[in-house]
Every structure is written in structure tokens, then in C-alpha cells.
């Protein structure tokens, strides 16, 4: 891993889980890192924190402008904020579809739109989108969530094509089941959270959940000049779930 000295990065959803681990890893490696989150109250120095809702274009533009002014420019955008949804197409209403799509897909578009003018000025610009194995795995009970992540995957490829000649690389990571507060909340909702966790771990090829820091490592690689010839790709961080053709749920 090269160091990130002199690199200025913005991480959405950076107050928790994968985003938090990524922001901390990039900062440990020398980057100046701004976190954009609905609730950045837990974010400490050296991370810079900005409150914004990725479903609100004005709040995204204001937070990005403030972050870029404080960082003195921008080299890396980690488009990570996202929310979950469970159920089949019969379980989710139109409102559910609009709400989740607005966060998971349009939220990434809004943030990218606000960041692109600044990334163009960077000599090593990279965007990393947090996608999911749900984009391509055909998971049961995840119709809406999977469709949003399928859109994130397509968006990654299209943006990579649009911006390759501007020197802006665009890639995504496809995590499997990651041990974050989000998954913790899902497990806590089960009648027996400990048994549910054990069953979930047993279904992983590795026998354990993916660590948030392991996804952060993949994001950092795709954000770094070490992956300078890589654009328009996805990197699975799923403990072998997809490559070994095993069912995650
Ligand atoms: P998390 O809930 O721990 O963290 C998500 C963060 O995003 C929170 O800090 C939250 O405040 C922020 N956020 C949510 N909505 C927002 C909005 N409208 N505007 C700004 N910030 C907002 O979740 P996580 O598990 O770290 O997930 C992060 C990303 O990883 C998501 O895109 C998710 O789809 C993806 N992912 C997670 C897993 C997993 O198993 N945890 C697997 C695959 C992909």
C-alpha cells in the first residue's frame, strides 16, 4: 500500500461501518480526510466532519464546497453512504423504492456531481463506489436493495467511461456480509441475536463475517496510485462468497 501523503479524500457515510474504517485507514496512511454523514457527531480529529444528507442536493453541494475549501482540493471520493431494504417486490411500496433508490443511487450521483469539478483539478483522481455482491448475486429477500446496487455497478462502469480521458478513475468494491453496525442492527432484531450471528458466520465460506477494515483496504487500494491502470472494475471483498459460488443467505 502506497502512502496517502498529500492526498485529499472525502468519504460519504464515513461516521460508521465501512465508511468509518475507510476514513480512518486513509488518515492513518497520511491522507487528509473529510467525512460527510447524516450524523457526523461521533467523528473525531484528525478526520474533518460535515453534516449532509445525500438525498438533499443543496446540503451535498454545501458540504462538498466546505470540505474542499478546508482540504485545499480533492483527489479521492469514496461514495459509500447507503441504506438497506429487505423483502420481495411485493413487500416494498413505491415510496420504499423511491426512498432507498434516492439514497443508494441518486445520492452517489449528487455527490459525484458536486466533486467532479474538483477531481478534474487533481493529478491522481479516483472515485470508489461502495456496491455489494447483491448487485449480481441474486439474493433472496433483497429485491429493492439488489436493484439499487445493480444500478451502482452500472453507474460505476458508465462514469469510468465518461471520465477516463479526464484522468479520473472510477471503480467499486463489492462487499459480502460485513460486520458493521448495520449488520449488528439486523442481528439484534432477531429473536436470538447470538444464534443468528453464529448461523450467519457458518454460512460464510471463511466461517466469519468480513471485517470493515478489510473492505477499507480494498477501497484504499482502488483509491491509490497503486491501482493507477484500473478503472471500470469491481473488486469483491466477500470472503470468497461469489468466487466460490456459495449462497450467502
Ligand atoms: P452503516 O449503517 O454502519 O453506515 C452507513 C453510514 O451512512 C452511517 O454513518 C449513516 O449515517 C450514513 N448515511 C445513511 N444515509 C445517509 C444519507 N442519506 N446521507 C448521508 N449519510 C447517510 O452501514 P455499512 O454497513 O457501513 O454500509 C456502508 C455501505 O456499504 C452501504 O452503501 C452499504 O450498502 C454497503 N454494504 C454494506 C454491507 C454490509 O454487510 N454491511 C455489504 C455490502 C455493501
From TrEMBL:
Keywords linked to the UniProt accession: Oxidoreductase
| InterPro entries (alphabetical) | NAD(P)-bd_dom_sf, Sc_DH/Rdtase_CS, SDR_DHRS6-like, SDR_fam
One Gene Ontology term of the molecular function aspect: oxidoreductase activity
Which protein family is named in the record? Belongs to the short-chain dehydrogenases/reductases (SDR) family.
Its protein name is Short-chain dehydrogenase
Q: Which organism is it from?
A: Streptomyces azureus
Amino acid at each position: 500500500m502506497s502512502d496517502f501523503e498529500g492526498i485529499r479524500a472525502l468519504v460519504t457515510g464515513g461516521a460508521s461501518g465501512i465508511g468509518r474504517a475507510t476514513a480512518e485507514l486513509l488518515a492513518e496512511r497520511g491522507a487528509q480526510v473529510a467525512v460527510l454523514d447524516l450524523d457526523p457527531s461521533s467523528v473525531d480529529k484528525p478526520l474533518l466532519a460535515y453534516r449532509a444528507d445525500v438525498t438533499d442536493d443543496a446540503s451535498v453541494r454545501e458540504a462538498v464546497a466546505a470540505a474542499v475549501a478546508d482540504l485545499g482540493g480533492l483527489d479521492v471520493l469514496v461514495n459509500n453512504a447507503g441504506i438497506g431494504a429487505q423483502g420481495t417486490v411485493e413487500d416494498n411500496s413505491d415510496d420504499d423504492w423511491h426512498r432507498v433508490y434516492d439514497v443508494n443511487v441518486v445520492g452517489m450521483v449528487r455527490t459525484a456531481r458536486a466533486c467532479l469539478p474538483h477531481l478534474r483539478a487533481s493529478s491522481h483522481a479516483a472515485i470508489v463506489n461502495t456496491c455489494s455482491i447483491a448487485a449480481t448475486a441474486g439474493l433472496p429477500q433483497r429485491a429493492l436493495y439488489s436493484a439499487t446496487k445493480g444500478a451502482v455497478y452500472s453507474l460505476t462502469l458508465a462514469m469510468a467511461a465518461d471520465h477516463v480521458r479526464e484522468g479520473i478513475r472510477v471503480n467499486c468494491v463489492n462487499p459480502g456480509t460485513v460486520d458493521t453496525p448495520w449488520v449488528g442492527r439486523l442481528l439484534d432484531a432477531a429473536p436470538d441475536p447470538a444464534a443468528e450471528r453464529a448461523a450467519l458466520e457458518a454460512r460464510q465460506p471463511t466461517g466469519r463475517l468480513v471485517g470493515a477494515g478489510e473492505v477499507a483496504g480494498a477501497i484504499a487500494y482502488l483509491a491509490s496510485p497503486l491501482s493507477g491502470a484500473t478503472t471500470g472494475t469491481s473488486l469483491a471483498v466477500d470472503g470468497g462468497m461469489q468466487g466460490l459460488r456459495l449462497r450467502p443467505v
